Amino acid sequence: MVEQQEASDDAVMTRIGQAIMLLHGGDREEARNRFGALWSELGADGDALHRCTLAHYMADTQDDPGDELAWDLRALTAAEGLRAAEGPGAGEGSGGARAAEHRDTPAVRAFYPSLHLNLAADYLKLQRPESARIHLQRARAAAVSLADDGYGGGVRAAIDRLELRMREE
Fold it and tell me: How many Å apart are CA 169 and CA 164, to the nearest integer?
């Protein structure tokens, strides 16, 4: 049963990865369609890492800044749900137990700087600079835990660019 669940989880991440490749290849509409179908399958009680990853990338497929914000907020909510499941009482309830045992929890933590950076950019697009500043500060604070690798350096550079852009406006 556990092996079947792990295979199922891997299949979901594979499908998310395929949609991400479509997005990066320029087919935003097909990526959006696949993400939407997966989101419906996962449901509100789906695996938090899957929901976080999917919503994080689904935001990038949106044409409307308000819709992009909504998806980025869903990604953050999923990440926070997983983090909360790590704390006291993590084993209580089926969702908490599943999240607390998730071997990819550090992957969600590594998302935090990017999640907050995206929210800052969303709020800036929506002309809500104070909310943008709050999330930019949270992105910078979360970025201290990133490794000094290509991903970490890229996120920190993006934080710097957005901060500079906000100062110039």
Answer: 9
Report d(CA 59, CA 39) in Å as an integer: 12
Look at the block and give the residue holding tokens 């500060």. 137
By the 8 A CB rule, do 105 and 94 touch?
A: no
For the entire predicted model, the pTM comes to: 0.82
Q: Report d(CA 96, CA 116) in Å as an integer.
A: 23
Coil, helix or strand at residue 105: helix
pLDDT of residue 44: 83
Residues 6+ positions from 133 with CB-CB distance below 8 Å: 120, 166
Burial grade of 50 (CB within 10 A; 0-12, 13-18, 19 or more): buried
The average confidence (pLDDT) of the chain is 86
Most confident of 44-48, 59-63, 144-148: 59-63
Q: Are the C-beta atoms of 99 and 48 separated by less than 8 Å?
A: yes
DSSP 8-state secondary structure symbol assigned to residue 60: G
SS (H, E, C) 31-45: HHHHHHHHHHHHCCC
Contact 166, 124 (CB under 8 A): yes
Residue 86 banded pLDDT, cuts 50, 70, 90:
low
